Amino acid sequence: MMPALDTWTNTMDLLLWRHAEAVDGIPDHSRELTARGLKQARRMARWLDEHRPKQLKVLVSPTLRTRQTATAFTDDFRIVSSLGPDGNVADILGATGWPDAGGAALVVGHQPALGRLCALLLSGSEADWTIKKGALWWFTNRVREGETQTVLRAVIPSDLA
Questions:
Q1: How big is the chain by its Cα radius of gyration, in Å?
Q2: pLDDT tens digits, one per residue of 81-128
Q3: Is the dihedral of CA 117, 152, 130, 58 positive or negative?
Q4: Coil, helix or strand at residue 134
Q5: In contact, 148 and 14? CB cutoff 8 Å
Q6: Rounded CA gap, 82 and 66, in Å?
Q7: What is the count of structural domains for the chain?
Q8: Where are the alpha helices (DSSP H) in the chain?
Q9: Is residue 152 part of a domain?
Q10: Would 2 be classed as within a structural domain?
Q11: CB 134 within 8 A of CB 109
């Protein structure tokens, strides 16, 4: 029996991780994680360690809170200035190469850009969707029978990781 041609092919995984809970204050870029935020980051990092896709590149906003969140998972990440609090959907897409770059990318970033990207990927247009602090959304882009599809693989709030 011959396998069906082009039944499905994964092209890229995109994981969006909102930074964990941080202290309030100014300057914004130097806000650090709270004790609760550190627990959220470690919990999600354990989940990621068990479920992560292979060859995962990790891209992180330059803020202290996102770097602390990422460090709970790995020290092997690249800081991307366009992923900062003022970044937008186009900045995330440009940094990751979604959906054409292949492989897997984890973005540790901020609202509202992460929520807007989730809305775009699921509904076709940007909207002000909220991602809880410390939560992870995982998308896969694939081609099935010639049609490109975006698939939501997981939504994990930090308290369920």
A1: 16
A2: 999 999 999 999 999 999 989 899 999 999 999 999 999 999 999 999
A3: negative
A4: coil
A5: no
A6: 13
A7: 1
A8: 35-51, 64-71, 89-96, 113-123
A9: yes
A10: no
A11: no
